[in-house]
Amino acid sequence: VAECQSLDSRDYLDSDINVTVYELKLLYDAYNWIQTP
Fold it and tell me: Measured on CA atoms in the order 6, 12, 16, 18, is the torsion positive or negative?
């Protein structure tokens, strides 16, 4: 049971991190787009 729980939390963390990276990339792209003359 502990194994399943740790796997679930790991997957949850990974998806959380992936979403954050994706959002940061969108912000970065938007920032670069705004900075383009």
Answer: positive
